[in-house]
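Subject: two folds for Thursday's group meeting

Dear M.,

Sorry for the delay on this. The cluster queue was jammed most of the week, so I only got both jobs back this morning. I'm pasting them in the order they finished. Each block is the input sequence followed by the predicted structure tokens. Could you check whether the formatting survives your parser before we put anything on slides? The first protein is the one we discussed after the seminar.
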Amino acid sequence: MYFSGQRSCDIIGVMLEELNSLTLSISTETPWLLPLCFAMFGACIGSFLNVVIYRMPRGMSVNEPNRSFCPDCRKEIPWYLNIPIFSWLILRGRSACCHKKISPRYCVIELITTLLFAAVAWQFSLDPLPVQVLLCIWTSVMLAVLCIDWEQMVVLPVLTRIAAATGVLTALFAPWLVEPQALSAGDGLLWSLIGGLTGYLLLRSVALMGCLLFGRKSTTFDSPQEWSMQQAGDDIELKLGDKSYLWSELFMEEANRLQLNNATINAAEKSPRGTITFTATTATLDDGTVIQLEEHEQLRGSCESMSTRKEAMGSGDALIAMAIGCLCGWQGVLFALVGGSFIGLIYAAIARIGRGQPMPFGPALIAGALLYIFCGNILINYYLISLGY
């Protein structure tokens, strides 16, 4: 069995070497051919990413139904109207079945994926073919993470775990991408894990410090205020005095908390005044009584003050930084953090997003990582030269 397994590994090794020689020969003689093939494949992957971006945040399977459908009338889309990029352009951004507008995001994602795949094949043409394929997988998954976070302000852990695993595999095939001095697969694995851990701990530390410094707010009222909670469509509305708050905004992160102090609540048999601590799904009284919010159509009472604790940075950003670190190493995490901060500031200024308004940082972080992958060395060298080094 040992010799059989060893022989299989040798055969696979020989096949990979021949495949790498073939792709290197193609890249040398016709440098445009491989990027073109990758671009065509990238357009198809971009079409699938649109399915992932739409379905996964809504808890839908990406396999069932197995055919794409119109998001308005739910009618299945035939294959000849589901050609990446061209179908949207030919239909002029409208559905063929119900003539409703189709978001340009579908075409944009397919185009971006096409360009990213072509850029990978061009930029890393001298690297082994498995490395190019793994880089395409990583960029595809992170593009899906970017779009979901942009639209829903949610980071799906399953996608970041896939990206992190892909980054570790890439480090095994090309350790020099994670750490320039690393030459062996073992070194690549070590630096990849160090990079992933650095990214996660760094962003979690930033989030914790931000929560301690800026995440706590308190409001004291001149007299006891009546409060009530009730369903508002798919959300929950909290009315406190003459103000109202949506539950989705108060609890954008799982760790967020809301406290009503010196308060009463109608759900308890005996409700002396005390502190009521709310999470997204529960209310906890001073005596340890836990009230499940979904079991009550309406809750009400009164309180004398209110305090909130919000995460300054989403916990999903740490998972994104972990996936970046697994591929780019700790240097890539720092570059993405700095570059992403500049990108985020520029976007906030253009979009006129004021202080206190929620804005996802994940997309800017991923954009910074892509900058590092494709032109990080150029930007770093230019910066060092401008400093006189």
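Second protein, same layout:
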Amino acid sequence: MSKFIADKDYNMIWNECSSRIRKLCKIKLGDSPEAAEDVCSDIYLAFAEAVKSGREITYPKAWLYKVANNLIIKKYEELRIQKERMVTFDENNTELMSLVIIPDMTDCIITDKDIQRFADEIMFSLSEEEEKLLRFFYDENMSLREIAGIFGKTESAVKQQHYRLCKRIKKAVNERIENF
């Protein structure tokens, strides 16, 4: 086969491989069928772009599986980062959203203003490094590895610091709610 793929060969190759690639994506990303479909679409688009740009692809089936593998790994990383994000903040980094755990308090009404005040108090109590850690992770969507590089620490140390910080914030929020 020539190194350059003609349009008709491109369609034939994709038709031969697409069902197996789709199956691979569904197996690897079984928890998220939408993610598997996204990866399949991205593989197809990458293949189409490579063919249209005249890229040399000596072994197109192998190339497709390599792209599939790389995109699956990338999707795993995206899904992992999404799972790590237990707390969401607004653009001012002050409003705690999914962190608040309210016990059965049928006789007590906590308003958004109260929650905002709690969040402000908690954010004010953080050190500059802790505030930067939260800002980098939640606002800038940086990975713990990237943050570790900025702070000059190991990824493990930053991950532990993030975990402890989230745990401390949860505890502070719950204490404020209980004492309300």
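Two things I noticed about the second structure. Helices lie at 7-28, 33-52, 60-84, 112-125, 128-139, 144-151, 155-178. Confidence is low (pLDDT under 50) at residues 86-107.

Cheers,
T.
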